[in-house]
């Protein structure tokens, strides 16, 4: 049996890097270390210290501690070596037994009674605390009404000695403390019962505090220097028309920072060249959010929809049923720049990109019930000039997307009806039930456009983060075609790692693809599977494959394919996988702690 590689998405030290930039500085940005939504009905991997815990249903699976008579009830998970990271969870207090009781989220826990925790106290306060045995010290806090039966989103950011706490996207405390530099995460109650859900841990103690950089257009090569940034916004940010939205905004509000509007209202009101700042927190949505066709910016004045600097807005569509009509976020307009949002639990695609000349940057699409981010026409039967073209997907992550039959939910899916010029750069697709990248083609009213995938990563596709699998899933890293239609895609400087079937596969695409400088390791069947076509292969490396690679096309000695044993290059590509996004958005990948360059 082949040895399997341990997967670790590492904070700080570890990053899967398709490109190495000398002298990178700044914290890595939001690579997922851990997530648990308890929808699998269990809490495997958590360790208990007190209390009565079980998974119950509250719209979806949630983790409940039901004994409000317990002095302290705790559950811990994660790695004791985790240092700089963010942990976020939804928390619902159910009951308090007495006064000054609490429910809390914990970070950097080095023991059952040594941690940082962000607590909701029934005295009407949110407090960021240092717990060291029986000594409890407040770093800071804020008065707030805490109601039982209400969900709150708690987040702790730990970066060096700086610890910050957020409730519903708003900072309630910040300070410095050197007690613990690393540790696990935890869920805590003290003489209280509560429910916990949607626990996520991401790398980087603090997210970048500058607004999103202006991204490179799809047709230009990757930048060689850190893109310029503009200073953080004041109130309001300088230049252009600006609107603010928040989870508690109202349609008729002015959209100022102190009087925020809703996301759907702001989308219809923003002018070309303007920016919509989306405040942090969870937006619980039942209806698709749509940027309609005709709602366009221009090449010199894009419309921007951006996470507010330092905050993470989560568009949660768990109220939707699984249905092709129930997409999460639809981008039908042209010349938009979408930055820094999380889209989760939609009844179909998380994001459907149907417009042209858009930039989708720093997004996370997860737990959706079809592909996380799909490019396809918006209206069935629409002619080729209405197929999405010239879009750039940049520094984006898509994971744990799964449909009920396990057959269609990919991470990224530019498929079926796609125009020319679409580029995926510095993207990561992992733990999706079907494929990481699906470029399936289907004969229609015009030729399918070629897609470019570069400096990207696909790993563990076909198996969800909780270990779930589906027999109908194709489970490839990069599936590059279908239906015997020739499309000349470009795949370069990208990595396929331990996917459930092939790493890179032609999937009946008889075209002349450019496949160069890619690395494929430990995929269950073949690292490279090309049974037809006239594709050109240069400088590719294959290691530890399930079966011998199959190559038909123009291949020379610059490639090292698998034919039953590892070649000389493979010694450089051993050890656990890690990845993160650098401050400038580049994907940094490591194997065994060594940065990978392709």
Write the layout of secondary structure elements.
Layout: E1 16-17, E2 32-36, E3 47-49, E4 53-58, E5 60-65, E6 73-77, E7 85-96, E8 102-111, E9 114-121, E10 125-132, E11 135-143, E12 152-159, E13 162-167, E14 170-176, E15 184-190, E16 192-203, E17 242-245, H1 263-269, E18 275-278, E19 281-284, E20 289-291, E21 303-307, E22 313-316, E23 329-331, E24 336-339, E25 342-344, E26 351-353, E27 359-361, E28 364-366, E29 373-375, E30 392-394, E31 397-399, E32 412-414, E33 422-425, E34 428-430, E35 437-438, E36 451-454, E37 457-459, E38 478-479, E39 490-492, E40 495-497, E41 504-505, E42 514-516, E43 519-521, E44 528-530, E45 536-538, E46 541-543, E47 550-551, E48 554-555, E49 577-581, E50 587-591, E51 594-595
Parallel strand pairs: 17-18, 18-21, 19-22, 20-23, 21-24, 22-25, 23-26, 24-27, 25-28, 26-29, 27-30, 28-31, 29-32, 30-33, 31-34, 33-36, 34-37, 35-38, 36-39, 37-40, 38-41, 39-42, 40-43, 41-44, 42-45, 43-46, 44-47, 45-48
Antiparallel strand pairs: 1-50, 2-16, 3-6, 4-5, 5-16, 6-15, 7-12, 7-16, 8-9, 8-15, 9-10, 10-11, 12-13, 13-14, 49-50, 50-51
InterPro entries: AL/BT2_dom (IPR010496), ConA-like_dom_sf (IPR013320), Pectin_lyas_fold (IPR012334), Pectin_lyase_fold/virulence (IPR011050), Polysaccharide_Lyase_9 (IPR052052), TAT_signal (IPR006311)
Main location: secreted
Biased composition (Pro residues): 209-239
């Amino acid at each position: 049996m082949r040895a399997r590689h341990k997967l670790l998405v590492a904070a700080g030290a570890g990053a899967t890097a398709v490109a190495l930039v000398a002298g990178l500085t700044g914290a890595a940005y939001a690579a997922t270390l851990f997530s648990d939504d308890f929808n699998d009905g269990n809490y495997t991997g958590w360790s208990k210290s007190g209390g009565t815990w079980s998974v119950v249903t509250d719209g979806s699976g949630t983790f409940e501690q039901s004994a409000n008579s317990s002095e302290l009830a705790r559950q811990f998970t994660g790695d004791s070596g985790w240092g700089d990271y963010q942990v976020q969870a939804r928390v619902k207090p159910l009951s308090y037994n007495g006064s000054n009781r609490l429910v809390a989220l914990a970070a950097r826990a080095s023991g059952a009674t040594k941690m940082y925790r962000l607590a909701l106290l029934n005295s009407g306060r949110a407090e960021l605390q240092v717990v060291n045995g029986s000594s409890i010290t407040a770093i800071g806090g804020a008065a707030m009404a805490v109601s039982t039966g209400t969900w709150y989103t708690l987040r702790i950011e730990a970066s060096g000695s700086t610890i910050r706490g957020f409730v519903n996207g708003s900072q309630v405390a910040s300070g410095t403390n050197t007690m613990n530099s690393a540790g696990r995460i935890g869920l805590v109650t003290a003489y209280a019962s509560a429910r916990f859900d949607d626990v996520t841990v991401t790398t980087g103690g603090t997210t970048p505090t500058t607004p999103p950089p202006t991204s490179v257009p799809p047709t230009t090569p990757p930048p060689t220097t850190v893109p310029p940034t503009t200073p953080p916004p004041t109130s309001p940010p300088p230049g252009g028309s600006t609107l603010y939205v928040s989870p508690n905004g109202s349609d008729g509000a002015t959209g100022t920072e102190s009087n925020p509007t809703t996301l759907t209202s702001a989308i219809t009101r923003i002018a070309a060249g303007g920016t919509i700042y989306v405040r942090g927190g969870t937006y619980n949505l039942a209806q698709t959010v749509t940027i309609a066709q005709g709602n366009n910016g221009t090449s010199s004045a894009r419309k921007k929809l951006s996470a507010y600097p330092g905050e993470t807005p989560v568009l949660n569509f768990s109220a939707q049923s699984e249905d092709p009509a129930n997409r999460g976020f639809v981008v039908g307009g042209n010349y938009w720049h979408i930055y820094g949002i999380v889209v989760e639990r939609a009844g179909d695609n998380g994001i459907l990109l149907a417009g042209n000349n858009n930039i989708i940057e720093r997004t996370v699409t997860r737990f959706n019930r079809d592909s996380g981010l799909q490019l396809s026409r918006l209206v069935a039967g629409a002619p080729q000039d209405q197929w999405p073209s010239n879009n750039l997907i940049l520094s984006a992550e898509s994971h744990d997307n799964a449909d009920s039959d396990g057959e269609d939910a990919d991470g990224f899916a530019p498929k079926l009806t796609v125009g020319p010029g679409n580029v995926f750069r510095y993207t990561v697709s992992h733990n999706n039930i079907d494929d990481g990248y699906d470029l399936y083609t289907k004969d229609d009213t015009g030729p399918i456009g070629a897609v470019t995938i570069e400096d990207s990563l696909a790993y563990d596709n076909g198996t969800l983060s909780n270990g779930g699998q589906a027999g109908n899933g194709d489970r490839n890293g990069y599936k590059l075609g279908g239906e015997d239609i020739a499309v000349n895609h470009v795949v370069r400087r990208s990595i396929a790692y331990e996917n459930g079937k092939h790493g890179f596969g032609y999937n009946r695409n008889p075209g002349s693809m450019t496949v160069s400088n890619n690395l494929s390791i430990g995929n269950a069947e073949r690292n490279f599977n090309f049974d037809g076509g006239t594709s050109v292969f240069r400088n590719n490396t294959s290691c530890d494959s399930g079966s011998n690679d199959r190559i038909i096309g123009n291949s020379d000695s610059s490639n090292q394919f698998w034919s039953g044993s590892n070649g000389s290059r493979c010694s450089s590509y051993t050890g656990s996988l890690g990845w993160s996004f650098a401050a400038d958005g580049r994907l940094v990948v490591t194997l065994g702690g060594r940065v990978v360059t392709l």
